[in-house]
């Protein structure tokens, strides 16, 4: 089994400490892309009620990924 680099470990710890950071949100979306046929819809439904907690860069990421779904709901 490959060991994580110190940089990778630092990123993981940062993500755990900052659950609404762009790094954490982007990784979670990437995992959804691997698991779901329509990842943006699942991502939107999972996080739309947490948007205000997101850090600014994560809010921008959410807006760009879910743009069509946000427009459809409004």
Polypeptide structure, described:
The chain has 74 residues and is mainly alpha-helical. The protein has one domain. The chain has five helices and no strands. It has helices at residues 6-17, 22-35, 39-47, 56-65, 67-73. α2 runs parallel beside α4 (56-65).
Kindly report how far apart the N and C termini lie.
Answer: 48 Å
| β-strand amount | under 5%
Q: What is the total domain count?
A: 1
Kindly state the number of beta strands: 0
Helix fraction?
over 70%
User: Element order, helices and strands?
Assistant: HHHHH
Q: Which stretches of 5+ consecutive residues score pLDDT under 50?
A: none
Largest sheet: none
Which shape, going by the Cα principal axes? Answer: globular
Mean of residue pLDDT values: 90
Oligomeric category: single chain
Helix-strand makeup class: mainly alpha
What Rg do the Cα atoms give?
Answer: 14 Å
- Contiguous helical run count: 5
Quick summary:
The chain is mainly α and 74 residues long. 70% of the residues lie in helices and 0% in strands. The chain has one domain (6-73).
Keywords summarizing the entry:
70% helix; 5 helices; mainly alpha; 0% strand; 74 residues
Topology, element by element:
Blueprint: H1 6-17, H2 22-35, H3 39-47, H4 56-65, H5 67-73
Helix pairs in contact: 2-3, 2-4
């Amino acid at each position: 089994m490959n060991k994580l680099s110190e940089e990778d470990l630092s990123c993981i710890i940062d993500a755990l400490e900052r659950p609404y950071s762009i790094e954490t949100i982007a990784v979670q979306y990437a995992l959804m892309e691997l698991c779901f046929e329509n990842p943006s819809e699942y991502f939107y439904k999972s996080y739309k009620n947490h948007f205000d907690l997101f850090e600014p860069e994560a809010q921008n990421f959410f807006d760009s990924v879910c743009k069509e779904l946000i427009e459809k709901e409004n």
